[in-house]
Specification:
This protein is α/β, with parallel strands linked by helices. The chain is 65% helix and 6% strand. α2 runs antiparallel to α7, α7 runs antiparallel to α10 and α7 packs antiparallel against α14.
Length: 351
């Protein structure tokens, strides 16, 4: 068995290292993708364009507007005279939020009964929700600052943010993208392995040899496992030494976890390669699986917020398990005692 397996592994290694340009692209593309995603994805949106209709033109209304500007979340890009003018600016796409301050704002604010109209562009849900939450918080702070009587709260809250005290988007996004990109890279390595043999006509020559199916699968997997492990180490090393991502976990357990994650991704790629009939079908199915995984594995959106049927469907993707494992290992520094369930799930998925 070992002689047959080594012969097939040698064949795959020769094919893998013969095309060095493709091999370099396989190693570099996940790194470039990580850099683009890590630097482009921002959950804390700043400088949201805002249009203001200040019908009061008083010191109170100007102070209210300044409270939005000093927060850094909003930026006034235009002034309007009424609600119609604000709608025109929002419709043109130049602003996401508009505020109409009534003429009697200064008089009523002293009696703590003034009203302000906010118009928010709901066509961009994420930025709109951020603008709504930030605008409400700023308005409440402004109202509290001008109250004539100071009301002391009976409850004092002390907040401590664990593992990411500065709430850096990079620390949140990067470990998850390492897990997802490792799955994408490993699937791309093996998703065409079997179907390529079928299309080129060499599968018949392999079938007449004494090689067994399990040996054939292992021979296709082991050479690519070396490349996949190198990709995982490259992504992690770049994130730690260039992006400043903390590495608080055990390096040995991290290597084991990376190997298990790579094996599960390679296995999923082999499933695709044996299920399709042409290489073109393999490319399309792999792209569809990777895109679905991006939304269901908890990279950008929490999995517990999804419907139950989607959460169950997400269990077929290796990244569903490796994303929380990577975050726990890199950011929290927890080890096998807390992460063994996810690691066992990856092993079962690989088998």
């Amino acid at each position: 068995m070992w002689i047959r397996l080594w012969a097939l592994t040698q064949k795959e290694l020769i094919l893998l290292f013969r095309d060095r340009k493709t091999l370099i692209a396989i190693l570099i593309m996940p790194l470039m993708t990580l850099v683009l995603f890590a630097t482009a994805v921002k959950t804390d949106i700043k400088h949201i364009p805002m249009v203001v209709a200040d019908q009061s033109s008083s010191s109170s209304s100007r102070a209210y507007i300044n409270s939005f500007l000093t927060s850094g979340t909003f930026e006034v890009v235009a002034m309007a005279s009424n609600e119609k003018g604000i709608r025109q600016v929002i419709d043109s796409g130049n602003a996401r939020i508009g505020i109409v301050i009534p003429p009697d704002f200064a008089k009523k604010i002293k009696r703590e009964s003034s009203n302000v109209l906010m118009l928010i562009d709901g066509s961009a849900s994420y930025s709109s929700q951020t603008a709504l939450n930030a605008a409400n918080a700023i308005s409440q702070q402004y109202a509290a600052s001008i109250m004539s009587q100071s009301i002391s709260s009976p409850l004092t809250i002390h907040t401590r943010i664990l593992y990411n005290p500065d709430m850096k988007d990079l620390w949140f996004v990067t470990p998850a993208f390492i897990a997802v990109l490792l799955q994408v890279a490993t699937m791309n390595l093996t998703s065409g392995a079997v179907v390529r043999e079928r299309e080129s006509g060499t599968i018949e020559a392999i079938l007449v040899t004494p090689i067994r199916p399990i040996e054939f699968m292992l021979g296709k997997t082991l050479p690519n496992l070396l490349v996949a492990f190198s990709i995982g180490m490259l992504l992690t090393g770049f994130s730690v030494f260039i992006f400043g991502l903390p590495f608080l976990g055990n390096i040995v357990f991290f290597c084991i976890l990376s190997l298990v994650s790579a094996c599960s991704g390679l296995g999923l790629g082999l499933v695709i390669s044996t299920a399709v009939q042409t290489l073109n079908q393999s490319v399309q199915l792999t792209a569809m699986v990777n895109l679905t995984c991006m939304f269901l594995s908890g990279v950008l959106f929490p999995s517990y917020a999804m419907p139950l049927i989607l959460r169950v469907f997400a269990f077929i993707f290796p990244a569903t398990y490796s994303v929380p494992l990577m975050r726990g290992l890199l950011l929290k520094g927890i080890g096998a005692d807390e992460l063994w369930i996810g690691t066992l799930a990856l092993l079962i998925l690989t088998i």
